[in-house]
Amino acid sequence: MASVKKRDRLEVIHDILRIISEKNNSIKPTPLLRYSNLSSQRFQEYVLELTEKDLIREVLDKKERKYFTLTDKGFRYLEKYKTIRGFISEFEL
Q: How many domains does the chain fold into?
C-alpha cells in the first residue's frame, strides 16, 4: 500500500503561491481554496499568514469581488523555493 506523503508547511505555501502565479497572478478565494486542497480553516490560516508576511495581497475589482495576487516578495519566494528544490534534488537529499 502506497503511503500518502503529507505536504509540509513550505510546500503548502509554495503551492498556494504557485497557483496564484499560474492564474495570471489573480484568483478568487474559492478556486484558490479548491486548488490548494486544504480545509477551509487551514486555508484561512495560510491566507492570513501569507497576507501578514506580505507574500500575497487581497485586492477588490470594480464590482467589489475579492482576488488574491502575489507581491514582489511572493514572487521572490517562488524563485528561492525553486533554487532550494534544485539543490535538494542535485544532492539527492
A: 1
